[in-house]
Amino acid sequence: IIGQGYLISFNLYPIFLATFIFLNVFLIVKPNDDKAIKLIMITYALSALFTLFSVYFMYYINITATMLSWHSIYAEKNTIAILNVFVILILISFKSKYKIISILKFLLIIFLVVFLIILKSRTATVGGLFAVICHFIYINKGSMKKIAIFLTITALSLIILLNDTLYKLLVVKLFLNDKVQSGSIDLSMVTSSRSDYVSVFVTSIQENFWLGSGYIRLESGFLYSLISFGILGAIPYITIAMLPFFTATKNIRNMENDLLKSLLLYSSAVAIVNFFLEQRAPFGPGTKFSFLWIVFGIYAKNYVSYSKKTKFNQKNSKE
Question: How far is CA 240 from the centre of its chain?
């Protein structure tokens, strides 16, 4: 089993790193420390912005040529795109009473959205859109706002579909990655062979249903875990991967900190989409999803503190 890459797997290293980040944050941060939470988020955002601006000015300064090119210039575009999405979500979540800061936030969000389009990372884009959908499902439940958002999205969709220039730029070049041949769509090309993984999964899982077949290159963390580790090994892997998202959606009403509530839901929503579309998500590669595990570590510390306080109050009320 070890020789097959079952226990010794490159995909386990990101899990160890994510666990290290989670435990460090959980042990260091104080419960319900709003200032510390804001400081951590601001520090992450500034660090990510420095990286994003560096990549932009190094590789993407010519916007027109980049947007019309067939391939993305920067090799690690998906990692940079995820950083981009996380910073956008942080900026949206932070509220400021100062007008100048609000204007700066708006300008940064515009730049980051344009940069996200230039990067041509469909997994990050879909993850960001799913985070927005989750916001209106779990946080903002106002019916009038939902109707307004629905009508806005419908109007924008119609404008994009009916305008030939916007359709070619946003649909053909961005989402279809310019892989439309003679008017027909090759699903395998459009999904970068991800659609082929289903047949690979069906064949491989039948051979080693319980223990898996060891390491395999497969751009889907969900399918990868089932094929590599089998049902027995995949259950804990999938549980850990999905835990932040299910925790956010289940306990969102019990969260007292609005900023933490929003950031955990947004980051876990982005991560859960990438879990099905990227091999090492939502743990890596590298520190790609470190923001998720930082936020989840802060939430876990607050949750433990909240549970102890609730039990203490219930015990006193009985006495």
Answer: 15
180: helix, coil or strand? strand
Say how far apart CA 259 and CA 256 lie, in whole Å.
9
pLDDT of residue 87: 94
At 127-158, the pLDDT tens digits run 988 898 888 788 766 556 666 666 677 777 66
Q: How far apart are CA 220 and CA 274, in angstroms?
A: 8
Q: What is the pTM of this model?
A: 0.81
Cα–Cα distance for residue pair 81/67, rounded to 1 Å = 15
- What are phi and psi for residue 281, nearest 5 degrees? -70, 150
Minimal CA–CA distance to 22: which of 304, 296, 316, 317? 296
What pLDDT does residue 242 have?
Answer: 93
Tokens of 96: 């400021």
Q: Which of 219, 215, 282 shows the shortest CA–CA distance to 247? A: 282
At residue 79, what is the residue type? T
Q: Which residues fall within 8 angstroms of residue 268, CB to CB, at 6 or more apart? A: 244, 245, 247, 248, 282, 292, 296
**Distance between CA atoms of residues 207 and 201, nearest Å:** 10
